[in-house]
Amino acid sequence: MTVDSPSTPPFRDPLLPFAKRVEDLLARLTREEKISFLHQFTPAVERLGIAAWRTGQEALHGVAWMGPATVFPQAVGLGATWNPDLVRRIGEAVSREIRAMRARDERVGLNVWAPTVNLLRHPLWGRNEEGYAEDPKLTSAIATAYTHGLRGDHPRYWRTAPVLKHWLAHNNEQDRATSSSSVPPRVLHEYDLRAFRDTVEAGAVAGVMPAYNLVNGRPNHVSPYLREHLRTWTDEELLVCSDAGAPSNLVDAEHYFDTHEAATAAALLAGVDSFTDHGTDGTLITARVRGALTRGLLTEADIDTAVRRQLSVRFRLGEFDPRHDPHAGTGAFDTPAHRALAQEAAEQAIVLLKNDGDLLPLAPDTRLAVVGLLADECKLDWYSGSLLHRSTPLEGLYERFGAERVRFAEGVDRVRLRTAAGAFLAVPVADAPDETRGAEGALDPALLSGRTDLPPVTTDATGTEFALADWGEGVLTLRAPDGRYLSVAEDGYVRASADQPGGWVVQETFRLEPHHDGHLLKHLGTGRHLRVAADGLRVADTGDVFEVVTVERGEDAVARVAGEADVVVVVAGNDPHINGRETEDRTTLLLPEHQQRLLRAARAANPRTVLALVSAYPYAVDAASLPAALWTAHGGQAAGTALARVLAGDVSPAGRLPQTWYADDADLPGLLDYDVIGGRQTYLYFDGSPLFPFGHGLSYASFAYAGLTARVRAGSVLVSCTVGNTGGRPADEVVQLYGRAVDPSVPRPRRELLDHRRLTLAPGETAEVTFEVPLSALEFWDVAHGVRRLEDGPYELLVGASSEDVRLRTTVRPGGRPATPRPLLERGLPAVDFDEQSGIAIVDWTRTAGDAVTPAHDRTAELVYRACDFGPGVTEVTAHLAGEGTLEVSLDGGPVLAALTLDTPTAGPYAYTTRTTGLVTAGVHDVRLTLRGPLRLAHVGFPG
């Protein structure tokens, strides 16, 4: 059938607007067909020639889960580049690889679940590697660039359709499916929503994915914010895809609804358009939708709304116009350009944290000792593709300095494990089939991972010498001499069969538990202990006792090679599949003790020691004792080459920290404390002394700043300065512009990133840098009036090389409105719009809309509302309450003037009732509310 045929349906006509074509196709679908579209895996509609389709293709820093692909640095590393243009080019490369891979494998989807724009509020978050920054401005700049690259620049057809993750205030893995993030209105509008809003408004976003957690007591998958905020930011139809299993969590884990039919209906009405649940089996979701229809919880029009949004994305992707799709046949895979881009990104992501004296860059004739658990590793994470190319720090330094000038010590402990009977654990020689052998006949461990046809570990008189690496908190891996890790397969036997620790449930991690005169060896993936059976080592309910016989300590090997070198490079950090990762938060900022021992041994043997941290998150390290330190996220396929080029001075480092590096665990808020303002969190509010501040990063060059000017015009501030390279080598500088309200009426950020520019300057070159900052960037959310407001008064503008390295400053007065008292007679007091609080948790007013407050842990809590205008006078106070307890009202810090009590509990948390009592006052006062007991407060009114 062709579009010129008179029988061609309108939805096949490429000359018609997408909206008309969507409506035509929607009208042709039966109700059952439309219901089937609501699951992630949408079946084909053969009678209309509509192919099967699915939402979801992971592509956080390259195409994930679909085999070999170009692997770029982790997202936090892309954030560290502070380079939107680079990230846009990476997004374009990733989308081209998706198109190329889809051409040969239809399982590769064009609806891309990336990027992650959750803010890196807390550095112990297990998924820190997935976000870009703790700052909403930087996060949205990088996310916007990546989505534009993924989308492509054709005005009509998209190369891929990006979906932002994870909406909203999601920054903990602990109890992530049941915990509620308590987010006050100012934090919601000024922090959490902002990164999403700026990215959506930039016009290259196809949708969002709600997060597992609840916000203010309500699951994100039934959040009214999808309607009240997200869908007001763009005229495009946005596709909301649920996270995996989250629809069922509404009943099974969160117990928010009594039935799955009610939960599914509520999610659909809130704005979820595609349900990711039960894998490829859509029958349960579709049955729930039918049940909701039967019970009157949904109408067919509600289903049409969701299907319309899906079809809008599919049309934009060119699915129905294969002859007109400009992206068809334009995919590119593992090209020289993509390889060069991966190296450029890895180089730009490296942050020079410290460089005392002349230690870096390294002289060409330097004799190096390269040590550490990450020195000869190129680690992948859960959202990586398989490596096409591999470059470890050791390999990069071999290539750059010559193998004869580089000594290596991994620093693992070499151990044998002896049973009570006196035998040792031994790895049998694997008689592998030919297909598991590489070009030179060596075993390819990537092909061995997960196999069950290899012989299990057994025992003999001499045993195998294992490399034992302790990754912190007693979590260890054991590796055989040929590089294979001990792993437990589905049959319960232990084999040396994995190339790396990995998987959703890691099967390569163990813990030694002291027991009598030896240790039990616990397998963490199954929670069971190891026992030697007649047919080999396996997991069992009761384990054998093993003696750990140390052949060599890791620090001894490190000290030996360190003492013979001019400079030692200690490569330390994390394995992205162990400890801090999806489903598991970290418990400390400290490096694992094993790696601390290696660092101390290197320093003792050779003071000229460089620490190269390769990690998905910040650490608290003893920087004062080190002459030089660098940090990079796991840098993908070119990580080692990039690090070597920076150490050698071929590239001047210019990465900048995308989040605060705290000096101590004591500086951190609670993991579930989402009030960045009240908790003084991130560089915006933290008033302590960080180890390294947000935006920090050194260079091998030096830069001079001069000539700062600022003027207000037509709704914006124009800021200009000159920056010159006063060093002797070409280098990048990241010019950072911050602002702060000088005399705010409410707590405001100490300083806040307004814009930045990464530029390359030759020695002696000077460039003028100009920023145009909209006045809206200086606004705050005025809880007293429920609007954004630019406050009248002076604003200081600060330009420099980090949030703390300020080189120039000036002050502007852009105008604005002065603070005015709360209009109490008009709005009353929405309970959540407090100025200050103590002991409060924010909860849902109803299941569908609104916020209320309650004492955390059912105890006492206080709320303060400043400058409340009672007008000519009031005579009583009313409160909308649920639960049980007492609300006390006082003014200006004085005694209790009114108390409203619910003596008997209401019928449930949403069964609000109104209580009224006398209160005579007039004029402007601060109001203090004290809640005692498990009481929910939604609103307080003051009738005249």
TrEMBL record:
SUPFAM superfamilies in alphabetical order: (Trans)glycosidases, Actin-crosslinking proteins, Beta-D-glucan exohydrolase, C-terminal domain, Galactose-binding domain-like
CDD domains (alphabetical): beta-trefoil_FSCN_BglX-like, CBM6_xylanase-like
Domain Fibronectin type III-like: 733-803
MF terms (GO), sorted A to Z: alpha-L-arabinofuranosidase activity; carbohydrate binding; xylan 1,4-beta-xylosidase activity
Entry superkingdom: Bacteria
Signal peptide extent: none
Keyword flag Signal: yes
Record-linked SMART domains: CBD_IV, Fn3_like
Domain Cellulose binding type IV span(s) in chain numbering: 822-944
PANTHER family on file: BETA-D-XYLOSIDASE 5-RELATED, SUGAR HYDROLASE-RELATED
Protein name according to UniProt: Carbohydrate-binding protein
Organism listed in the record: Streptomyces dangxiongensis
